[in-house]
Write a structure and sequence with these properties.
Bound molecules: zinc ion
Largest sheet: 8 strands, parallel
Shape: globular
Length: 702
């Protein structure tokens, strides 16, 4: 079953006088699931006294209306008594100040950030709260599952970098001890002469030597992962029967935007690590958030980023925008049903099995008041709910087909290096540059209908099946990672590297060009950083001339033993059955920043073709223009091919071509139940023409 539902209760709102009518209205609108925030501060307002009367009633009303329930355990909103009952549990910021907690901007009752999870007294209390919730509801007949950690929040409103309390510092040093096998190992890796662990300090702020800062960032990411595991393990032991997931405010990759002094890069953990142990991953998405609206490609990329990490586990779009965003006194555009249905079906096309909106009613407190309601007063609620009813009917009719659907495997990978994020953050206080590099390449791929996945540097089993791996701004690379990438190339893979790949180790130390792994492997060396005279570069590759947007600098390359006056901005080296391409500048983020193609997408497509990547579909018409493109995703469900097509407008007609053998009969559009002719296909390409459609969406079953 595909779950289509909405967040409803963030206590004490909506007040109980609305409950019966609202929940009945949800069921009538095609929703089958309701989510409730179970807030620690609210449930355990008095230590060891748990009150669940409101949740009991909501779960019962949901059951009467045929809705399943997701319980979101909000353990990051601490009771007001936490520091009284657990003295000395305050977080400490990077200036040594105790963090004063307060009410959360978007939660009416409770303390944030509260106590430090590294204080054993805080974790004991949190665990007792989780026990009380899970034992209360694990046998509820309509319990669907648990969202164990909402948006991975732990340091919200700390108003500085955290945590530097004695418990966290102790844990940091233990983590280093285990990682380096003792102080001698650490001294060897960092080239230091520390005599005792208390001399080893966490990084304090950006723009100091990178070593300690990168280590502390890495530790903070690990610590968030461990906290997710702690919550999961505890809850799973009490309730082995229901899925337990966690979800980020955004996918891990996008946490390159975390900035000093609010938080370190990737401070909320890592989706790839979560997916190793936890039943699923997910993210929130507010595509029409006032002031930072996402365009279509950006939204697809966002979903791809989190879907790349799930490795067979569940994918939940845990907070999808319900109604108009509202922050303070800024009003944003209303949410139209067409856009909203595109988000829903984009999520399903990426393999999501649960879509949960934020939220049902407009909010009533603080800066979010008047905003976000699926059934809220932005003028389009009736149209949105009518569209939802239609999608709900399709999900009910084709539930099995969609539940068993899996998107086709990609043959193109885009590399995500947390260590490179840490280094950029350690210098600039944010990892915007490597993030923009990833966004650039993935945007071009999505606009050109090339399936891809993000490959995270510690999960290189995901290289399996890839033909091309693009490494945007991967300035940090340890030899263990380089060895695996070299094996991928020897086996026939192609790497595309941007300037200064592997120019630093994860110890934060710079490597001269001749000392880098790939220079040893290929004989290609950079001569050093040179100014970009204009913001474009020109080079030849495989008989074609390219002139492309570029950023930051150029690092021309020479061949070892070759003439030093022969310098290249793009060169390639064969390694085994494969090839490494080196580009001596940054193309991806330059393309992303300009918001214009300028030949970059052609270059990316030439890379894809030269790697022999097989594409599951080709958009014959219309071609991608500067702001429009057709998004198509192809996958399988049992013996069926499923094709999700998103035109740039409902009026548009889209012509698609499929490789021979993929489609041999006509297809049916699940949204309209219309049969669509497929021409050819036995030997040559099969072609189909779609549209116009009601929402610009077709879901084809072949
Ligand atoms: Zn702490």
């Amino acid at each position: 079953m595909i779950h289509l539902g909405t967040q409803y209760y963030r206590p004490p709102f909506p007040n109980d006088r609305y409950w019966e009518e609202d929940i009945q209205h949800m069921a009538e609108s095609g929703l089958n699931t309701i989510q409730l925030w179970v807030v620690w501060a609210w449930v355990e307002a008095k230590p060891s006294t748990y009150r669940f009367d409101d949740y009991d009633r909501l779960v019962a009303i949901a059951e009467r209306n045929g809705l399943e329930v997701v319980l979101s355990t909000i353990a990051a909103i601490h009771p007001y008594w936490i520091h009284r009952e657990v003295p000395g549990s305050e977080m400490v910021d990077n200036f040594g100040h105790k963090v004063i907690s307060s009410n959360r901007g978007e939660c009416h009752y409770g303390l944030t950030p509260g106590g430090c999870i590294d204080h054993p007294g805080v974790w004991d209390r949190m665990r007792d709260f989780l026990t009380s919730v899970v034992t209360r509801y694990r046998d509820a007949p309509n319990l669907m599952g648990w969202d164990a950690w909402n948006e991975l929040r732990w340091n919200v409103q700390a108003d500085g970098l955290v945590c530097y309390c004695p418990y966290t510092l102790n844990r940091f040093r233990h983590w280093l001890d285990a990682k380096y096998g003792g102080l001698d190992g650490l001294n060897a890796a960092w080239q230091r002469r520390y005599q005792a662990w208390d001399e080893v300090r966490p990084g304090k702020a950006p723009d100091r030597p990178y070593t300690e800062m990168m280590a502390f960032e890495d530790f903070i990411t690990w610590r968030s992962v461990q906290h997710a595991y702690d919550r999961y393990d505890h809850m799973k032991a009490l309730d082995p029967d229901h899925p337990i997931t966690v979800h980020g405010g955004q996918p891990t990759v996008l946490h390159g935007s975390d900035r000093y002094p609010i938080a370190t890069a990737l401070h909320r953990g890592n989706d790839w690590d979560f997916a190793e142990n936890i039943d699923g991953v997910g993210c929130s998405s507010f595509p029409l958030w006032g002031g930072s609206e996402m365009d279509r490609a950006e939204f697809v990329n966002r979903i791809d980023f989190v879907a790349s990490a799930r490795s067979g586990k569940r994918l939940w779009l845990s907070e999808l925008q319900g109604g108009r965003s509202n922050i303070g006194f800024d009003v944003a555009q209303s949410v139209d049903p067409e856009s909203q249905q595109r988000w829903v079906w984009t999520g399903l096309s990426a393999g999501a099995d649960s879509i949960l909106f934020w939220c049902w009613r407009d909010e009533v407190f603080g800066r979010e008041s008047t905003g976000f309601g699926l059934a809220g007063k932005d003028g389009l609620a009736d149209a949105r709910l009518a569209a939802m009813r239609r999608t709900g009917d399709v999900l009910a009719k084709y539930g099995d087909l969609l539940e068993n659907y899996e998107p086709d495997d990609a043959e193109v990978g885009v590399f995500f290096s947390p260590q490179s994020y840490y280094l950029y953050w350690a210098q600039e206080g944010a990892a915007q540059k490597p993030l923009a590099g990833i966004k650039g390449y993935t945007r071009a791929l999505v606009r050109q209908t090339v399936p891809y996945r993000i490959v995270e540097e510690n999960h290189l089993d995901q290289l399996e099946g890839l033909k091309l791996l693009i490494l945007p701004r991967t300035v940090v690379m340890d030899d263990e990672v380089a060895e695996v990438l070299a094996a991928f190339v020897r086996g026939g893979g192609k790497l595309f590297c941007e300037s200064e790949v592997g120019s630093f180790g994860s110890n934060g130390l710079y490597r001269y060009p001749e000392d880098r792994f790939f220079a040893e492997l290929t004989g290609v060396e950079e001569v050093g950083r040179r100014m970009l005279e204009v913001d474009r570069v020109r080079f030849d590759w495989e008989g074609r001339r390219y002139e492309l947007p570029a950023h930051q600098w150029q690092t021309p390359m020479v061949w070892r033993g070759g003439a030093t006056e022969t310098q290249h901005l793009l060169t390639s080296a064969e390694v085994g059955a494969g090839e490494i391409l080196f580009c001596g500048t940054y193309l991806g983020d330059a393309y992303f920043a300009r918001g214009a193609n300028e030949g970059f997408e052609t270059f990316v497509m030439d890379l894809v073709k030269s790697a022999g990547v097989a594409l599951p579909v080709r958009v014959v018409a219309p071609q991608a223009h500067s702001t429009t493109f057709t998004h198509v995703r192809v996958g399988r469900s049992g013996d069926h091919t499923l094709i999700f097509v998103f035109a740039s407008s409902p009026e548009e007609r889209v012509e698609l071509a499929f490789p021979a053998g993929r489609l041999d009969n006509n297809v049916v559009d699940l949204l309209s139940d219309h049969e669509i002719s497929v021409i050819g296909g036995d030997e040559g390409e099969a072609r189909a023409v779609l549209g116009p459609t009601d929402w610009g969406i077709s879901i084809l079953k072949g």
